[in-house]
Structures are given as structure tokens and as C-alpha cells.
Write a structure and sequence with these properties.
Layout: H1 6-16, E1 26-30, E2 33-36, E3 39-44, H2 56-69, H3 77-81, H4 84-97, E4 101-105, H5 108-120, E5 130-135, H6 140-147, E6 153-156, H7 161-167, E7 174-180, H8 192-201, E8 209-213, H9 228-231, E9 241-245, E10 255-259, H10 261-270, H11 272-275, H12 282-297, H13 300-318, E11 329-333, H14 337-349, E12 352-357, E13 368-372, H15 379-395, E14 398-399, E15 404-405
Parallel strand pairs: 3-12, 5-6, 5-7, 7-8, 8-9
Antiparallel strand pairs: 1-2, 2-3, 4-10, 9-10, 11-13, 12-13, 14-15
Helix pairs in contact: 2-12, 4-12, 5-6, 13-15, 14-15
The structure holds pyridoxal-5'-phosphate.
The site of pyridoxal-5'-phosphate has 14 residues, from α5.
Length: 407
């Protein structure tokens, strides 16, 4: 038998279960119209919720950054890769999240890994002194890191504060509670103010820390678009760690972690994902800062929220089953991978591209179409989407009363 004989078996099994993932080559993606293999699709599967990734000023900053600083950063931030553009972006983030300090990471995945590993695996505490508690639906990048630690890791039922309180009943000295601000696959929000209240009103010897992964809220929620902590003002001082990504509403790539100066100094010294990784290109930092400023000052968040309201209203009038999500992420839960795949293929045949999300990305029996709306969509795009959804659900025998295929 050859080495790694399970590889082929695992892939074949995924194929037979309609769970095999493959990539599509996108030739162009402009104004929410995507070209794939010579065909054009309305793109309802992008996290560029405000269209900032294509905004002229952002592109111009990118180009200026490239000509000033070159294509890459050349080294880790702790060697020679840290540039004035990184500093300017960090300062903006601190000012607007009301945190003392921030660090930039090449991705949100790396940032979540770094937080878990630096806090719990740097050898400063014993596993029994530590505890990680996260929402059950917390993103894979956090769950993967937390599960790989020797530290006990517990998960509370989604948005269930009674369950969280129960898990907090006996918590050791170093307890980290983590939640997403807006959940990536469901689009609903965490009750952050209530979580803060719970921490404030409970008697702890050491108050646990609260961390928010705000990947899908940065740019979209809050008065200045700075995410869930901005929206739940004045509680944001009580949120100890804010992680946000640039690859979604900000339209570039990378991520930040913001917190106390002590936390950031600690990560700068002990987070291996930061220390042993090349800094994000200065051009990306420059374009990202421009994007943040545009986001803060523009009314595109209102346009996005108008589009969300329009989509929900039209779906309601056609009996298309939506969830309570009020965000740009609108799932249609179909509950089986084959049906989800078939519906997404029917939608493609009608020129509509949506996310086809199957287990294990989401729990079994909650396979779904994941529709993401953007401020860039026009009313006619949303009309086309709703018409196509109605038709494809019907064509594939989806019964909205039983939330499953018609038998
Ligand atoms: C909630 C959440 N956290 C973290 C990440 C990872 O961010 P990045 O894409 O920058 O690696 C994602 C991306 O899908 C996400 O949805």
C-alpha cells in the first residue's frame, strides 16, 4: 500500500456525498458582474459589501503604495517589514475602535490562530488555569486553533447567554470568551451588550476576557462603520480583543487585532503568526486606510441596508423562506447538500452566482444558499435574483412549507 492511501478515498467520498469543493476561474469581476468561462453572472457571493474593492481612490492608493514602497514588504514586521503605511493604518484602527494599540496580520485566519496560540500556548500558564469558551458557530479559523490547544475548550449554544453563564460558573484565572459580531454563515448578530452585562454583573475573581471576531461587521455596522463594538457603544471598552478583517467590506486583504497596549506588546513578542511571517505589503496597508476613510465618510452603508430591506421584502412577497438575518448575509436553508448544489447550478444557468454552502462548513442538515448583498447591486439585480430564486427552488422541488424537497 502506498503512503497516504486515504487521500483518494477521502476525495471520492466527498464526491459521492455531493460535498466535493472545486474552484472556478473568474476572468473578471466588475460592478458585481462576474465572468466565468465566457459567461456572465450577477455576483451575489462576494463579501465586498460596499464595493470598496473597486473604488477608484482605493485603487489609486494601491498604485501609489506600489510605486512608493514596492510590491512586497520584504521581511517580517519585527525585522524590516514595518512601514509608515502600516503605522498609519494601525493608528486609524486604534482611534476608531477606541483601543490602545493594534497589529496587522496577513489574514483573519492567521490573526485568530495567533490570538489562541499566543495567549494559551506560549508557556506562561498551566492548561488548568486556562479556558476558552466560544459561540458554537464561531468561525473555523478560531475553532481550529482553540481545539488544537491543551487548554480546555467549551462552546456555548449559538447566542445562548444562559448556556454561556452556565459554562462560566466555574472559570479559571485566564478565560477567553469569543464570538463573531455578525455570524459569517447566518448573518445574525451576537448579543454583545448582553454578554458585556453578564460579565459585569457576575462575580468573578478574574473577569474573563471577551473577544469579538468582527470580520463581517467591520464596514457595515456602527455609526462610523467600525463594527459591532461601534454599534454597541458605550460597551466597547468592555470588549478586550477586537479582530477585524480587510478582505470583506473593506475590499482589500489582511486583518487587524486591536486591544490594550499590553496585549499588543505581548502578541508582537509571542504570536508566531506575526513574528515569523512577512508583513502585509505597504501598498495594501495604504489602500486599506483609504478604503476605511471612504467607508467612514460615505453613505454606501445606507445603500446596502436599502438593498437588504428590498431583498427581504421581495422574498417575503414570493414565499421564499429567509431567516431573521438583517445583515448583508442572507441564507436560504435547504437542509441537504444535493438540493443545495442543484439549486445553485440552476441559479447559475439563470446568470446568478450565490454561495453553495454545505456541511462541514455548516452543521449537517443546514446546507444552504448563502446570498450576500452589496451596496453595488441595483434594484434590477435584486429583482433578477428573486425571480431566479423562486424558479430554481421550484425546479428543484423545494417545498418551503416543509423546508425540504417535495416528496
Ligand atoms: C468570521 C470570520 N473570521 C475570520 C475569517 C478569516 O479571514 P480571512 O479571510 O482574512 O482569512 C473569516 C473569513 O471567511 C470569517 O468569516
Amino acid at each position: 500500500m502506498s503512503s497516504f492511501s486515504y487521500i483518494k478515498k477521502a476525495v471520492d467520498q466527498r464526491k459521492s456525498q455531493h460535498l466535493f469543493r472545486k474552484r472556478t476561474v473568474v476572468s473578471s469581476n466588475v460592478s458585481m458582474v462576474m465572468e466565468v468561462e465566457g459567461n456572465y453572472y450577477l455576483n451575489f457571493a462576494s463579501n465586498d459589501y460596499l464595493g470598496l474593492g473597486q473604488q477608484q481612490d482605493v485603487l489609486q492608493s494601491y498604485v501609489e503604495g506600489l510605486s512608493l514602497h514596492g510590491a512586497g514588504s520584504g521581511a517580517s514586521s519585527v525585522v524590516s517589514g514595518y512601514n509608515k503605511e502600516h503605522l498609519a493604518l494601525e493608528s486609524f484602527i486604534c482611534e476608531h475602535t477606541n483601543k490602545e494599540a493594534a497589529l496587522l496580520f496577513s489574514s483573519g485566519f492567521a490573526a485568530n490562530q495567533a490570538i489562541c496560540h499566543a495567549l494559551f500556548a506560549s508557556g506562561f500558564s498551566k492548561p488548568q488555569e486556562n479556558l476558552v469558551i466560544s459561540d458554537k458557530w464561531m468561525h473555523a479559523s478560531f475553532v481550529e486553533a482553540a481545539s488544537s490547544l491543551q487548554t480546555p475548550f467549551k462552546r456555548f449554544k449559538h447566542n445562548d447567554l444562559e448556556h454561556l453563564a452556565y459554562l462560566l460558573d466555574s472559570c479559571p484565572s485566564n478565560t477567553l470568551i469569543a464570538s463573531e459580531g455578525v455570524f459569517s454563515m447566518d448573518g445574525d448578530e451576537a448579543p454583545l451588550s448582553d454578554m458585556v452585562n453578564l460579565l459585569e454583573t457576575s462575580a468573578f475573581t478574574n473577569r474573563p476576557w471577551l473577544m469579538v471576531d468582527d470580520a463581517h461587521a467591520i464596514g457595515v455596522t456602527g455609526n462610523s462603520g467600525m463594527g459591532s463594538c461601534d454599534a454597541s457603544n458605550p460597551d466597547r471598552d468592555q470588549i478586550d480583543i477586537v479582530m477585524g478583517t480587510f478582505g470583506k467590506a473593506i475590499g482589500t486583504s489582511g486583518a487587524f487585532v486591536a486591544g490594550s497596549q499590553a496585549l499588543i506588546d505581548f502578541l508582537l513578542n509571542f504570536a508566531r503568526h506575526y513574528v515569523y511571517s512577512t508583513a502585509i505589503p505597504a501598498a495594501v496597508a495604504k489602500a486599506t486606510l483609504t478604503s476605511f476613510k471612504l467607508m467612514r465618510d460615505s453613505d454606501s452603508r445606507n445603500l446596502l441596508h436599502q438593498n437588504i430591506a428590498l431583498f427581504k421584502h421581495k422574498c417575503l412577497s414570493r414565499g421564499i423562506p429567509l431567516t431573521d438575518s438583517a445583515s448583508a448575509i442572507q441564507p436560504i436553508i435547504l437542509g441537504n447538500p444535493e438540493l443545495t448544489l442543484n439549486c445553485s447550478l440552476s441559479l447559475k444557468a439563470l446568470g446568478i452566482w450565490v454561495g453553495c454552502i454545505r456541511t462541514p462548513t455548516v452543521p449537517k442538515h443546514t446546507d444552504r444558499l448563502r446570498i450576500t448583498l452589496s451596496a453595488m447591486h441595483q434594484e434590477k439585480d435584486i429583482n433578477a435574483l428573486v425571480d431566479a430564486l423562486e424558479l430554481s427552488l421550484k425546479q428543484n422541488g423545494f417545498n418551503s412549507k416543509t423546508n425540504g424537497p417535495t416528496l
